[in-house]
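Appendix B. One record, verbatim.
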Amino acid sequence: MACLYRFIFGKTRLESIAIFIAWVMVLIHQHFNEEERPFVDRVLDWKTRAEERFIPTRTDFLDPRRQDIIRSIIGVSGAVRVIFSGGYDQAERKRAIILPPYSDESDFSLAFFELVYPQKFVRIEHPNLLGALLSLGIKRDKLGDILVEEGRIQWVCAREIRDYVRVHLTEVGRQKVSCREIEANQLIQPKEEWEEKHGFVTSLRLDVVISEIFHLSRAKAQDVILAGKARVNWKLVDKPSLELEVGDLLSVRGFGRARLDAIKGMTKRGHLSIDYSRLK
């Protein structure tokens, strides 16, 4: 630190400021992986806009990991605040508003739709609707949660694309459809169902636990992780050797989600006895 002090203050004032800012950025970046750093820079810019220019920022929809990044950077004790909404209490994907001091902005600009189609004769699922919306040129960041219950399909989106969706969403696959706008209080209230299971692992390495939970070979589990298809607590992880902890949430693209619930002890053969849950 003393060397840094002498280095900085041996420069001009502007050079010193630039060096100090670069040093702070390095300290912040080291807490995030390379994939996340461009988003971190955007959050820092939004925070600066709120602090120095008193301009609020409303983001697109964010997954839980990006929500956590914003919380960690904005903090909870400063003058700048952040609030989130995805349209209902259990929402996974949410928009954020970064608020300058004394601002009471709370318009998340959300719209809510329900798909209209012959439910008795056709089955449309989450991937079908998402694919149809993306095929219209709509970015995933403009779409919130998609809710499915006994044939009914609803979704949350950014209000700025509301009219476009209403006019252009006429087909899902080969099925003719339409959509009607609804109110937030008409949204399906999702109920997550977790199946509790028990298993044995040689260690708490990510590849070992994924192999056990999703019934994959160790080599296949490593391939999935190295391919960037595994997340732990919503954070992309590409290290098979990562050690998991109780409470960690796993998401493996193409296989589902699971949670490590408990470590029950060790067997005589030296294996760990674990409880885990898989999302149905």
